[in-house]
Amino acid sequence: MTIHSAAALAHPNIAAIKYWGNRDQLLRLPVNGSISFNLDGLWTRTSVSFQPSLPFDELIINGHEVAGSALERVTLILDLVREMAGIQERAEIVSENNFPSGAGIASSASAFAALALASSNAAGLNLSERELSRLARRGSGSAARSIPNGFVEWQMGTSDEDSFAYSIAPREHWALTDCIAIISASHKKTGSTEGHALAGTSPLQAARVADAPRRIEICRGAILERDFDSFASIVELDSDMMHAVMMTSNPALHYWLPASVAVMQAVREWREAGASACYTVDAGANVHVLCPEKEADELAMRLRKISGVKEVLTAHVGGPARIIEE
Ligand code: PMV
After folding, report:
1. Any residues with CB less than 8 A from the CB of 111 and at least 6 apart, and which?
2. 153 lies in which domain range?
3. Does the C-beta of 286 come closer than 6 Å to ligand 1?
4. Does the beta carbon of 283 sit less than 6 angstroms from any atom of ligand 1?
5. 195 CA distance to ligand 1 centroid (A)?
6. What is the pLDDT of residues 33-59, one digit of tens each?
7. 165 vs 34, 54, 147, 205, CA distance in Å?
C-alpha cells in the first residue's frame, strides 16, 4: 500500500489594501483587488497524506481532531486536488500553527496556503504559483496572497482562471515590521466568510469598491518606491473605509473595542510627532501597527503600555509558501 504525502509551511499575511466582499461567494472571487505582505515568524505547517485505507478525510489541528464546517472546507480543497490528480484516496491532514489559535490572528490564510501546497504535492501534482494561488483562494480568499513571496497583489480578475495573487516585490525589498497589538483573544463573532456576504448590504460598499483601483495604484507605488508616508496614509484610509462598510452593513459588524480605538489614536499622534507608523485592522479587535523595522522595538514598547493591549507580537516581511521536510 502506497502512502503519498507532503508537508508545507505558509505565513499569514496582513492586507494594506483590504479584500471585503465577493462577487462569487463559492469561487471566492472578490469585488476588488488587494495588496498584502506575508508575516515572517508566524506560520502554519501542514502535512497531507493520501491513504487508501481511510474512509474519510481526517483533520487534526494543533493536536485535536476537527470535524464540522472546518473539515468540510478542507475537503472542498482536497476534492479539487483529487479531481485534478485523478485520485480517490482520502487524506490525513495534520496542521499546526505557531501562533496562539485563540489570539485573534486569522489563521485561514496561512492554513489554506499550506494546505493547497502540501495536498497538491502529495497528490503528485506540480502546480504553478498561479495555480496554487487560485486553489488556496477557494478555501479562504486571503490565502491566495500567502502563496507568493513578500509583497503581494491579488488581482480580482474576471473569472476563476485569472483571479490569483503574485509578488510585486520580494521580502528583502523593504524592511517593514507588523507590530500586532493583541486586544482580544476571543473568537470573532462574525467570521469573514459571513462578513463578505454582508458587505453589499452597506450603502458605502459601492463607493469603497469604486475607489479601490485608485488606492491599489497608490499603495503599489508606495511599496515599489519605499515611500512610507504615502503608504501610511493609504493604508489607514483603506482600513477605515472597510470598517465603515462593516459598521453600516445589515446586520452591522462592529469589530473595534475601546483599546483598538486607543491604539489607532496613539499611532496617529506618534506619526504627527515624527514617528513612522500606521495602523490597519482586520475582522477583529487587534490592531496591526506597520512601521520600518528600525522603529519596531520602540513602537512595540509604547504599544505594550496602552491599557487594554494584552501582548504585542512582531513580524517582519515573510517569504512564500514552501515545501518542507516531514
Ligand atoms: O480570507 P478571508 O475570507 O478570511 O478574508 C479576509 C478579510 C480581511 O482580513 C478582513 C481583509 C484582508 O484582505 O485580509
Report:
1. 10, 44, 46, 95, 97, 139, 140, 143
2. 1-326
3. no
4. yes
5. 9
6. 999 999 999 999 999 999 999 999 999
7. 9, 34, 8, 23
Cα distance from N-terminal residue to C-terminal residue, the chain: 19
- The answer to whether the CB of 13 is under 6 A from ligand 1 is no
CA distances from 98 to 137, 178, 199, 252, 319 (A): 22, 16, 31, 32, 16
Q: How confident is the model at residue 102 (pLDDT cuts 50, 70, 90)?
A: low
Number of domains present in the structure of the chain:
1
pTM beyond 0.85: the answer is yes
282-311, pLDDT tens digit by residue? 999 999 999 999 999 999 999 999 999 999
What cell was used for 194?
Answer: 459571513
Please list, in sequence order, all residues whose beta carbon lies within 8 angstroms of the beta carbon of residue 146, skipping any fewer than 6 positions away: 10, 11, 12, 13, 38, 109, 110, 112, 113, 136, 321
Residue 284 grid cell: 477583529
Confidence band (pLDDT; 50, 70, 90) for 99? confident
Q: What is the CATH number of the domain that holds 56?
A: 3.30.230.10
- Peptide bond between residue 170 and the one before it cis (omega within 30 degrees of 0): no
Ligand 1 centroid to Cα of residue 320, in Å, is 18
- C-alpha–C-alpha distance, residues 316 and 297, integer Å: 12
State the distance from the centre of ligand 1 to the C-alpha of 34, rounded, in angstroms.
10
- Nearest CA to 219 among 85, 35, 82? 35
